[in-house]
Specification:
Helix content is 16%, strand content 31%. By secondary structure, the protein is an alpha+beta fold. Strands 10-9-8-11-12 form a five-stranded mixed beta sheet, with helices on one face. The protein has a four-stranded antiparallel beta sheet with strand order 2-1-3-4. The longest helix is centred in the first third of the chain and has 16 residues. It starts with 5 loop residues before the first strand and ends with a strand.
């Protein structure tokens, strides 16, 4: 196991960390379950945004273990996703935000992003959770690999619903959107499910 086996990615918008309560909760849960210890980190205290990163959208990555951490700031370059490809990976597990992402590196696709299918059910993509639109309601797979902080926020606001989504039922949905800490819910980012290759 590496020195810092898990990490958090936090969006910094104009110098202000976003969704800290959800990141704090996930960090504390990870330390409790992975290390059987109580978290000693307070994200509000340890995230000190350097002056050069006070403007625009900045990515803050915190690699950590039960007692130490390392922080890196970088300007975030948004990535546009115009197509998805279903990938069948029944054995993939990612219950904590592990720094080791070698299983995701094994996923080779010809489209912009993957939809990871496990035992016939839709989970996540390689970089975040997925949302699907049907009859003006946004849904997300209840069989997600990792519960992202943006997903947790949207659920807390009753903006989306968790449901089982089978790969054979994807045609019932009209649009798809990827969300993560750096890519918030924004309907302008959604694309037609016709751009999914099964």
């Amino acid at each position: 196991m590496s020195q810092f086996p898990v990490f958090e990615t936090i969006a910094i918008l104009n110098g202000i960390p976003q969704n800290l309560a959800f990141h704090q909760a996930r960090m504390e849960n990870t330390i409790k379950k992975l290390f059987q210890e109580t978290s000693v980190f307070n994200l509000e205290e340890i995230i000190q945004v350097p002056e050069r990163y006070q403007n625009g959208l900045v990515r803050c990555r915190i690699d950590y273990n039960q007692q130490d951490y390392h922080i890196i700031f970088s300007v975030y370059q948004k990535r546009e996703i115009k197509s998805y490809q279903a990938v069948y990976f029944d054995t993939l597990e990612y219950i904590f935000k592990y720094s080791n992402r070698k299983n995701f590196d094994l996923i080779k696709i010809e489209k912009d992003e993957a939809i990871i299918i496990r035992n016939g059910k839709v989970t996540d993509c390689r970089v975040g959770n997925l949302l699907f639109l049907k009859n003006n309601i946004w849904y997300s797979p209840k069989d997600y690999l990792l519960k992202g902080t943006q997903l947790s926020y949207l659920l807390s606001q009753n903006k989306i619903k968790l449901v089982e989504i089978k790969v054979k039922d994807l045609h019932q949905y009209e649009k798809i959107m990827m969300i993560n800490a750096m890519n918030l819910f924004d309907e302008s980012r959604a694309i037609s499910t016709q751009h999914i290759t099964l």
